Structure formats: C-alpha cells, structure tokens
C-alpha cells in the first residue's frame, strides 16, 4: 500500500510508528519514531518479517498469515533486539495489495523512552503516553513519601512500645510488660518460676531520708536484680517497692533458693546515700508453673504473694517457696490482708 | 491543609535559611508541631500561623516570601521530582501555560486528597495572558507567580509577571510572554535516568 505523498505528513504526525507494506511484505514507508529504534540504517526496502518477529499469535510466520491476522492484536519484537517488545495491528488495503501496520511500545514504553531518548514529539499529539509517564512518576513520588512515613511511624511505634513497657525510674520492665510476658509463657506452655519480692523497711527510708533516698534504693535494688539474673530472665518493678522476677525454662528449686539468698544477702548491706546509710532488706516468695495442672497468671501471682508474706512472718529477709499448706493457713487465718498491711 | 503544603513550607525554610531559622519560626508561630509529614493532614490555621511568623522572622512582606516559596518549589535541586512533573505539561513554556487549567486535576491524579487552586488562563493579544487563581488560600497567587517565574527559566522563556490583586478569593496574574526560547533553558528527558 503506497501512501500518497500529500498524506505522508498526516501519517507521520498521527501515526509516528506506522509502516506501509507492499503485498510481498516489503516496507515502503515508516513513521519517524521507528527510525529511532536502531533497527537498521535503511528500513525502507527491507522485508517486514526480516526486521520484526511476531511472537503472538505464534503461527504468523509468513506475510500472507500476517495480512490474514487483519485487525487482531499482535505482539512483536525486533529481530536485532528481542528486549524491544512492541504491540501492533495490521490492516490490509481493501483495493490495493499490501497494507498498513501501526505499532506501539505497550507497557515497555518506560524502558523505550530511556533507551531511545524519545521526546513528546515522538508520540502523536493525542497519545496518552506522556500522561501515563507523568502519572507513573507522580504516583511513585507519592508512594515514596508514604513509604517514608510508614517507616517513621514504625520506628515511633517501637519506641512508644518500649516506653509503655518500661518503668521510668529504674529502667526495669513494668507491670504491663510482666502481665504480657506471663501470658505469653503460659500460652506457649513454657514452664517458669515466678518470684515476688518486697522491700522491708522501705517506708522508713522514705520517711527519714526523703524520697530521693528512696529512689536511690530502688535503683540499687534494680541494679542488683539485673546483675544476679540471666539475659533470659525478666525483672519488673510492679509497685512502689515491689519487684517480680520471672525465671523461664523451669530452673531447679535449689537454684531458685540460691538466687533468692544471694539477693537477700546483697541487700542486707547498707546502701550509702549522701553521707547517710539506707537500711533495707528484702522478703521474697516464689511459685513455679509446674505446681499447677493449668497455670493461671492471677492464681500464680496470688500464691507468690502468699509465699512472700510467709517470709515477712518469718521475720523478713527470707525466701519462701509456695506450698499448698500456705493456702490452708491462709483460709484458716483469713486475716492475711490485714496482717500484710501491718507487716509491710 | 494537606501535609504536602506544610512540608513544602518546612523544606523551603530549612533548605533556604537553615534549621535554626525554622526553629525560630516554629517558636514564633505558637504551634506544637516542629516537623510535618507530607502524607498527613493538618488544621488550616497552622499554615497561616507559620506564614505570618515566617514573614516576620525574615522581615520580608508576605507576598515576597510566598513568591520565593513558589520559585523554590520547582527550582531547588531537592525538588527535581516536582520540576519534572511540571515539565510533563508541555514542550514549550506556552504549552505549559495552556496546561495550567489542568493543574488542579493533574495534582488530584497523583494525590487524590490534595486540593490545588482552580486556574483559568485568559489569552489576550501578542503573547499577553491573564491567569485567574481561585482558591480559599489568600496569597496563593504569589506562590504561583514564583512557580511561573522558575518554570519560565526552566524552559528558557522570557516573561514579565505581575500580581494584579485579589478580588473575592480570585487572584489575578498578568503574564507577558516576550520570547518562548530566549535562552537554553534546562534539559528535560521523558525517561528518568536510572537511580534518580
């Protein structure tokens, strides 16, 4: 199909990637954008199928088959560079032999624009390619900002969580962190020991030497507890002068006793504070998840507490392991709460 | 106000005058935020408080500050992405002017909750244009004037711009396009270089 000379500017402007073919597949004319694809020095005069391969539909191997595809979507690539993929459609000339093929880059346009240095002038004025390129850049810029925001929010969340689970004064874990961990251990069925510790004579320190001294003592206790525990253990400050130590993986009872006694001994040393000495000690009670057929956080905390107050009854600076007997005494006496207040 | 706008303000001050000045502006504007997120939304009055404080801190009339912001938006090297998006609008500065009517919709395509002013270009004779800027953001016309000035440089066009005042939330700019290709202008390739 020979394009009349008078119409060539029209074809070049409106279909910058067209080719007109003769009946035997010879290229008679091409649009200006195709000249930029480094296909060969002189496209005109070559046979279309020597320069282009039709990859879909697969059975198009001859010029006749190509013309017979009349109006169907064609997937093509350059013979000299298979990475340059094109979309196309061929319309045979109704009167004459031959026909007109129009090509486009399809989704490969982003790569093609960079590879061949194309400009807006290489696309038809009403082609949406430029709008698409604009949209891709605009969306990736917006997406980039969103990604950055997500990253910042994520780190802020981690910091906030860390804060929410930390005791502000001592840097130990707080009650919320302890509750969380106990629930996890029970859910996962990991056996553990739960030790509840309460300082003795702490109120006296606060009353005589002031709150700064009290805070100093609490920090000292936190330091000792941290030093005496392993990385896998958790130490939490759960109240004014109450601490909980969680020892996972079921340490033997003798080890728990040794650990408690080390702490009790270290805390019996007076703590120097601004020329004065703070005298405190610690009472402790422990229960072990293996004591229960179905461990329950509240029950275990209650039992560790019971053991702790048994230590206070023993005269303080002592450690008690929970046994069922403690509970019997408790129900018999049923005045523990009141005596707790007194002793503490 | 969209976070992108507050963020642009913040970047303008930090990139042009430095972070200590930004800290001064924040202090003077009595807002409790010191850094903005581009993808969040903020109360409208925050933007105006910052602008007032900025004009006072820099001891420059608000119109001049706003115009500087507009210039900064498309000419600073940290905003190459925005400059590129603007250049997609046309091959010449004149093309670019004709595409301004679409700016509002183009911005929405990229960021659906971003509302930019409605622009209407009126053509007069001999390269003379009038641009109507309709928005609920007093002074936005000055920002646009800065953008136009920087884009003219970018395209290499010679223009004369003038702000003709604000009537009922409609600011009027007069644009005289003296020469479309006065200088080389800056390069623009449709494809982004790898890694950009």
UniProtKB/TrEMBL annotation, chain A:
The protein's name in its UniProt record: GGDEF domain-containing protein
Domain GGDEF, residue spans: 190-324
SMART domains reported in the protein's UniProt record: GGDEF (SM00267)
Pfam families given in the database record: GGDEF
TrEMBL record, chain B:
Pfam families reported for this sequence: HNOB
Domain (Heme NO-binding) ranges: 2-157
InterPro entries, per the entry: H-NOX_domain_sf (IPR038158), Heme_NO-bd (IPR011644), NO_sig/Golgi_transp_ligand-bd (IPR024096)
Protein name: Heme NO-binding domain-containing protein
Organism: Parasulfitobacter algicola
Record lineage: Bacteria, Pseudomonadati, Pseudomonadota, Alphaproteobacteria, Rhodobacterales
């Amino acid at each position: 199909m020979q394009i009349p000379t008078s119409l060539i500017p029209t074809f070049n402007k409106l279909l910058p990637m067209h080719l007109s073919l003769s009946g035997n597949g010879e290229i008679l004319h091409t649009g200006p954008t195709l000249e930029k694809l480094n296909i060969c020095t002189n496209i005109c005069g070559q046979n279309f199928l020597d320069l282009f391969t039709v990859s879909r539909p697969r059975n198009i191997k001859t010029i006749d088959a190509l013309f017979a595809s009349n109006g169907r979507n064609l997937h093509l690539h350059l013979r000299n560079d298979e990475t340059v993929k094109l979309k196309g459609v061929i319309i045979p000339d109704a009167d004459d032999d031959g026909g007109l093929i129009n090509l486009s880059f399809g989704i490969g346009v982003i790569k093609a624009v960079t590879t061949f240095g194309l400009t807006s002038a290489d696309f038809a004025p009403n082609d949406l390619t430029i709008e698409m390129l604009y949209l891709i850049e605009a969306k990736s810029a917006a997406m980039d900002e969103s990604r950055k925001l997500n990253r910042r929010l994520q780190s802020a969340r981690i910091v906030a969580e860390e804060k929410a689970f930390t005791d502000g004064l001592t840097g130990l874990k707080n009650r919320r962190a302890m509750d969380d961990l106990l629930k996890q251990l029970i859910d996962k069925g990991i056996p553990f020991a739960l030790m509840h510790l309460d300082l003795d004579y702490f109120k006296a320190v606060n009353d005589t030497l002031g709150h700064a001294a009290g805070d100093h003592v609490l920090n000292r206790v936190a330091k000792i507890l941290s030093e005496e525990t392993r990385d896998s253990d958790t130490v939490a400050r759960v109240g004014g002068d109450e601490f909980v130590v969680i020892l996972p993986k079921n340490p033997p009872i003798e080890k728990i006793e040794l650990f408690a006694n080390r702490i009790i001994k270290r805390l019996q040393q007076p703590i120097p504070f601004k020329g004065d000495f703070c005298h405190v000690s610690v009472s402790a009670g422990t229960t072990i998840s293996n004591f229960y057929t179905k461990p329950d956080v509240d029950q275990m905390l209650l039992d560790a507490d019971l053991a702790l107050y048994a230590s206070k009854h023993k005269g303080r600076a002592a450690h008690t392991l929970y046994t069922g007997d403690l509970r019997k005494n408790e129900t018999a006496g049923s005045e523990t709460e009141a005596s707790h207040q007194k002793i503490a | 106000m969209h976070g992108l706008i507050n963020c642009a303000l913040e970047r303008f001050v930090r990139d042009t005058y430095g972070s200590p000045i930004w800290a001064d502006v924040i202090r003077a504007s009595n807002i409790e935020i010191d850094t903005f997120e581009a993808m969040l939304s903020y109360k409208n009055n925050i933007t105006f408080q910052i602008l007032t404080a900025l004009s006072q801190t820099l001891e420059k009339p608000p119109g001049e500050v706003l115009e500087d912001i507009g210039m900064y938006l498309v000419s600073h090297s940290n905003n190459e992405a925005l400059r590129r998006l603007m250049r997609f609008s046309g091959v010449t500065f004149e093309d670019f002017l004709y595409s301004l009517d679409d700016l509002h919709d183009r911005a929405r395509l990229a960021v659906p909750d971003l509302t930019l002013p409605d622009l209407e270009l009126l053509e007069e004779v001999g390269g003379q244009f009038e641009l109507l800027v309709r928005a609920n953001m007093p002074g936005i016309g000055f920002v646009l004037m800065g953008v136009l000035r920087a884009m003219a440089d970018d395209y290499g066009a010679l223009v004369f711009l003038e702000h003709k005042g604000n009537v009922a939330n409609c600011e009027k700019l007069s644009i005289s396009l003296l020469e479309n290709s006065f200088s080389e202008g800056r390069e623009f390739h449709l494809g982004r270089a790898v890694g950009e």
